[in-house]
Amino acid sequence: MVNQEEITAYYNKLANDYDEDRFENTYGSYIHKQEARFLNKHWKYQELKSLDLACGTGRWTHLTQFGVDISPNMINESKLKFPNKEFFCTNGDSLPFKENELDATLSFHLIMHLDKQKLGGILQEVHRVTKTGGVFVFDFPSKKRRSLFKKNRTGWHGSYSLTIKELKDIMGDDWSLKKVRGVLFFPIHRFPAFSRKFFMIIDNLFCASFLKSYSSYLIVE
Q: 37-63 in b/e burial notation, b at 16+ Cβ within 10 A?
């Protein structure tokens, strides 16, 4: 069972230094660039009613009109960047929107902290607030990758992983899968920091190939 109080406390504590600690280094910026590659190509909802779910400090909130997070400290950081946007401190399975109100939702680095039951609730709730033909873009750790390296995690932090088949089973008939792309095919964290940028081009090729399910993460629409 996911302990949301523990998750909230964890991110409240990290909020002030989160951007610097997580993405202002060669590893974090590598992941960010690969995520941006997908969003720059496929996300066309900046001017429509769209939501950044688990917005954190607002890394992707420039692409949406609204932000939601369970950490009030994270939301405060987002508000400093985007004082004219609207933010809500709530859970992903209890969104403050009417039925069929949103055109699109994106969510990064959320699903990895959940479980099957919580993911199912979020998928249902996002479906409720999304217009017919709308989209939900999110990422999650690849179970195929973790199985390949016999990687088992404990606790809530980044421990939940999925296969595409498992995701489809949880989605049921509410959603249809349109796009899948990998992120972080190579174990960049094991390479010297100065060399990581040289792997980006070939990494992107593998992340878009038939081997994409063996990337560290998968982005789906």
A: bbeeeebebeeebbbbbbbbbbbbbeb
Predicted confidence at residue 121, as pLDDT, reads: 96
CB 214 within 8 A of CB 128: no
For residues 156 and 7, is the Cβ–Cβ distance under 8 A?
yes
- pTM of the predicted protein model: 0.94
CA separation, residue 56 to residues 12, 67, 149, 169 (Å):
10, 8, 30, 28
| Entry field: residues in the chain | 221
> Distance between CA 186 and CA 106 in Å, rounded?
25
Contact call for residues 92 and 141 (beta carbons, < 8 A): no
Torsion from C-alpha of 44, 50, 53, 56, nearest 10 degrees: 80
Please tell me the predicted confidence (pLDDT) of residue 153. 75
Of 192, 215, 218, 193, the residue nearest 203 (C-alpha): 215
Mean pLDDT (the chain, rounded): 94
Residue (of 187, 146, 147, 140) closest to 164 by Cα position: 140
